[in-house]
Design a protein that fits this description.
By secondary structure, this protein is an alpha+beta fold. It has eight helices and 25 strands. The longest helix is centred in the middle third of the chain and has 17 residues.
Length: 512
Amino acid sequence: MERRRFLADIARYAALCSVVPTDWRVVARPRFADDPFTLGVASGDPTSTGAVLWTRLAPRPYELDGGMTGGRPIIEWELADDEAFTKGVRRGRYTAAPELAYSVHVEVEGLAPDRWYFYRFRAGDAVSPVGRVRTTPAAGALTPLRLGVASCQNYEQGLFTSLDHLSRERCDLVTHLGDYIYESGGRQGAVRTHHSVEIRTVEDYRERYSQYKLDPMLQAAHLMCPWLVTWDDHEVDNNYASDFGENGMESAEQMRARRAAAYQAWWEHSPVRVPRARSWADLDIRRTTDWGALARFWMLDTRQYRDDQACGDGTQAVPCGDWANPARTIMGAKQEKWLSDGLGASRSRWQVLGQQVPVAPFDSTVGPETKLYMDGWSGYPANRDRLLAEIALKAKNRTVVLTGDVHSNWVNELHAGFDRPGREIVAAEFVGTSLSSGGDGDPVWRGSAEVMPENPHVKWHSARRGYMICDVRPDAWTTEYREVAYVQRPGAPVTTPATFRVEHGKPGIARV
């Protein structure tokens, strides 16, 4: 750790120690005037023998500490084969801590593979909603997978109608690719009430998560099945890169303090395992999840370790500045090696990269000039082409990249590199639109007809709101794009405007 960061962290921790609650009383039978499970329940990070069960005690979510009055309440958790809990499987106790916002992360083990279970929590006389969780198939199994993919849910810009539909899809697993919350608000004409200032402290971020978690459609989607979650930028600051904030007004030390607050609140509100980190500002969320021998999920972090965006961010004509510098990274050297080594060692039928920003480039201008999106992998071309070369060598045409961030749907064929034309196709990228960010959206991007010929690797595009449903089998991967026509008023029906198929071991994406 750099000396400057070490001293800054020590100073923050010293200040924290002066205000951290020192009430160590363990409360075996807590009493609540209001329902402590207002934020719902969730499960995540499943394995063949277990999963994480999550909730947070918050009887009055917008008050300090969620309206909790101190102490360390004991929460009971139950797991059963049936929704009525007449066939109990596991049960236990968990002591919630005020330092972690009374969040609960139960890591259940000893379960049977490839099984559905029901779970719930008790605190005093209060009982939580009942959620469904399933374990993954045993090692070697090629059990099919029904996967939901979602991202980008801006509370103020639209209703979570897509999540309402997703909750009825009966998925085995959902991946959420980031922008679970938005750190700023107060847009003119907002659909729903939102704070008007950008948030920075852990208390601010906790309150924002509470606002989102109170949504009944989001809660229902979490009840359906376990989730694999990662973050993008808005969990901290729009388009932040490592210790660089969006507007450049915050120092590296200030950004580290903000990251620490944001990362802690993210963990407190996510069904994920105990973090590996030297400090909250260094929370390591890259991890793998195996669905038997059918698929290995690689959940990536393309925010914490990246270099600052080239050429001032935004969409820029290239080459420019240090854009083409081969030393620039979006993944960081350690994560890049971890993924490269892992792709070479994994024998799973499908390698699935769950990550934040588009890998495929998109030239947004007609003619010889090229304009690219600096916040995506196109802003880090050397790192992108190294990744694609590794896929070509170790997992060619059995790799699927799942992407969020850009509030629109894209289907992209990924080549062994985009540094020159004619490279072979080695992977598929399915970019999912937002759940609500950007408002109602449009069926097509205006001007796309003119620029699509510049991007022959792009097979389809739409800018409605929605999510993806993926049917994963040993011989093929099928992605159905679900869309709703509007989110700024309730009741939008869901449609499936396009379906695409990738055959295992064969290049290219076919429209079904």
